[in-house]
Amino acid sequence: MQRQVDLDGPGNFRDLGGLPASAGGSIRFGLVYRADRLCTLSDADLRRLEAYGIGHIFDLRSDQEAADFPDRLPAGASYVRLPMTSDETFQSRTIYERIIDGEIEAYGEPEMVAGYLRILKNFGPSFARVVRQVALGEPVVIHCTAGKDRTGVAAMLLLDLAGVATEHVVADYALSAQRRPSQQHDHTEAKSLRPLLENQGLDPTRFTPLWESRPAVMEATLAQLHQRWGSAAGYLGAAGMSDSELEAARTALIAPA
What we know:
By secondary structure, the protein is α/β, with parallel strands linked by helices.
């Protein structure tokens, strides 16, 4: 089975399945999909997702992102909005809106890691809700706009919970840089973000981590997760999940060897 799902619309849609997990098992195929925004799904794409049995969509985008580019949904799928932001003032604004407002003049690897940590710090109950749904063993899609940052943090938690080694978690994160962006995607490509930055009088080279998926960023985020909470299990436990819920999620995620 292949992890990348080639669709007409979303370009960063893939299955978490196949990655080596604890006890010699691997992440189960057909359970958790990570994706960029779903507004570009074609009718054929929707039929394909329906055939996969995808019944739950978790949208991690801000209210404005979701309003500007509303998702198309497979028939019968539930749709749950869990807005997340890395804004240190905890307002529902994207990094790009903050750039336009003149609040950010550079965004390097340290800022990326700090942003991911703010997401972890402030949205534990939202991540716990996703993991509780995964524990039921029903196929889900987790997505944001690019399928890289907020979705990447969610994928990191699920993979760490299942005992996937750091090198594989990092490699999964890095894959986003190799996937073509969605049609109409106006944020992650350098060629479209560059004019925005230049119009603000900013040097685009000081923002390249925003549209890249640098391994060092995920490595540092994982290290901070382990340092602060011990593991994804410790983090999710602090967010209110019980030991039995965590074990149910692991069981759902891991296909035995």
